[in-house]
Amino acid sequence: MSSVASASLSPSVPVFDASPPAVSGPAPAGTSSPIAVVTQEPCRALNLSVTAEFSGAAAGNVSQPFVLTNTGSASCMLQGYPSRLQGWREGRWQDLTFTQGTYFIEEDPTPSSVELAPGGQAELILGTDDACNGGTLGDSKLYSRLQVTLPDQTSIELNEGVNAFCGLDVSSFHPLQVPQSSPPVSSPGPLDALQVQMHAPATATAGVTLSYTVTVSNPTSADIALNPCPSWQALIDNPVSPDGIIQVSGKIDCATTPSVPAHGLITVQMRIDVPTAPGTGKFVWWLTGVTIATGEALNIVPANK
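^ thats the sequence. predicted structure below, dont judge the formating
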């Protein structure tokens, strides 16, 4: 098996508000005022969808990543850090103070603009401490949902809450590479009648090799031949790990199991390396070229626990 490092994947929620694009340009000869020329089109809330990813934890820090996808037909830009963070509590939006930069990603001193092509994705990470005040949260400051404001005053609602008792920090916007080996969309074939189920522990130690099994079952009344013999792929995506996505692939042993019997199943023995950083990862397995997959959350704990 081989491991491939990549970046994040993942219902979207609507976002709202919009504002005019930043414009600039030189003044033509003989004039004293510049003519507005669009040089960068900022991303508008209307053309962004937001997905809350699995939260993670490491060294007393808790992260909540959000993935922003450009659903428009043209490229747009996200710049730097949000200029404002608000939380919904007691029936109103309340301003929240935050620190720029998080434990979970190395920031440039002056973050670069992120250009999102149509379908492109960027990530924003909100972090907090889970061990302040000796681990006692006292009067919890729970906010049921959040809203960030971009430098151009576009407001984006985030579909996840936070406890701000221990303070908050926010990353800059940074680009994500869509995994190139995501389960593809294809026309249904005989193998699409199969069902798959992963049998793996809910918790794994960071940096170890995890053994697990996958059952491939046939709910129909006829044998399903594994012809052509399918490949499989698996990945663990831990947003806070420097490994990014750990991805492996291989072939079903079709010489030993040339078909999945009617109302029967086959069991496939699997192994995959666990990302080296603690956190909560997405663990996914699928047959290549087939529209069936199985997945679950994997709690990754430090090696010394």
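The chain has two domains: 23-176, 190-301.
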